[in-house]
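Title: Prediction job returns without error message
Component: structure pipeline
Severity: low
Priority: P3
Assignee: unassigned

Description:
Job completed but the reporter wants confirmation the result is attached to the right record. Sequence as submitted:
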Amino acid sequence: MARFRTPTATEIATLEAAGVTAENWEHVAVSEDFQPPQLQRCRLEGRIELASGACIRRSRVRNYRIGKHSIIEDVTALECRQRSSFGNGVGVATINECEGRTVRITARLSAQVAYLSAIYRHRPKLIAALERITEAYTETQASEVGTVGRDCRIVGARFIREVCIGDNAVVDGASLLENGTLCEGARIGVDVKAHGFICAEHARIDNGTTLENCFIGENCILDKGFTASESLFFANSHCENGEAASIFAGPYTVSHHKSSLLIAGMFSFFNAGSGSNQSNHLFKSGAVHQSVHLRGCKFASGAYIMSPALEGAFTMVMGHHASHHDTSTFPFSYLLEKEGHSLLMPAANLNSYGTVRDMEKWPARDRRTVERDVIDFKPYNPYLTGAMLRAVDLLHRMEEQDPKAEYYVHNRVQIRSAAVRRGIGLYNKAIVAALGAMLAQGTASERYDGSGRWLDIAGQYIAKREVDRIVEAIEQSELNDFEAIDNRFRLFHVHYDDYARSWAESVYAGLLGHTPTHEELTDAIAAGENARTALRRTTDADRDRDCSMDMAVSYGLDSDDETERQADYRAVRGLE
């Protein structure tokens, strides 16, 4: 354990001659190997602890412990003015601006715990238990003295007040940081202002970003003047230029445009086009409305949704929608505006190469090391496949009720009869592909019962029955800290393939009307492989169309020769 001492009289004289002053030298503790040049033209107030090799230059520091080899330079004030929990315990009014889904943030918060806290408000015993766990953790973090970890670099900043700074963190040019925690490797850049915040491991906040009451998850990036309040951002999210208010941004939430607003909703694996906007401005009862955009949704440029609303997973939204739709039954769809109405094309996104590209790029872009948030990337899984099975049943019922209808209405969206038939065919093909993929993975074991409905808990595919068990264990104090809860989610994740296979076997048995034989399972796996190949041919053809010479308009601008135009197109698009 490191040993500290007060500076000697000779050291104090040397320091004061070099422009170093202290409110009380008896409250300054330095390492055994302290050298006076570590302090230059600085003001020390309250209790100060300076570890080996740490430096403070041209800065005012009050009530802080400075870790080994850390540098504090040209900082107007690094101060802890009062007892603080450093952002731990701050309430964030996520999803709903009227605070009905408030999540209290901590440096140990995972996407799964946050999801339970925000979504399971109908379980008051669960919410009370999570509150106790949060309060207990928050109290362990409280102190009258702030901390700067090892190998940190804090330079050119103005005011840093009641901020706990982890190892290898960087603060370079921030304007104001107050009541927060920077976990290991976090980076805060020029002109950032943040109040009531947690930045998880290796998060980066830069270039004039402003935060109020926010959690920024592992390896998230908020940049280029992005503004966020009352919001949670989980692993690998990347937002620039625009604005977020009261959102639950699950993993890989992306928004890059100045004109885009994300407000009062839940997102994950999401991409906002320019001018995207959701409003909850039906203020008859206040800002009480919310929307949920399930995994993989995309908003085209100018897309608008009036809350409340709900879209199925991997839905492409284009146009304006103000009828409060619920398309959650229909994943992989297009939601279009047609003559002022919302028009749904079920399963249309299964033909898009964009969907394939998204599913392949997300795991390739995973930069995490801690991996506190559990994220499943499997394209063929019980959650999406179960949704497609329900969609097929519903589409069949529509046809049976009125076989001659030109279009049908479901939850305030129109579906043309031709789109119903096309959707049934596409969903069935994808279901065969998915069941075959899941039957080919994992091991058959009664230990892993994945039957029943599955959920997507902020990036994790998990059986609802297991979530119910976790919730009950929390309510009964069997899981009484964040680590124990996260480990239960993670344990399911470790055996995901086995649970998914169990689910697929139970579904296949239901379709057959009996327990499948080995030969039937083998046939299903082979059929699944054939279906996946057929689907991939379709999406590859979509990619080929997007890369065809029909899309070479505006290339080879100064060329008179068609060959040159094509060469320019291929060079720029990387098609050689």
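Comment from assignee: result matches the submitted record. The domain at 1-80 is CATH 2.160.10 (UDP N-Acetylglucosamine Acyltransferase; domain 1).
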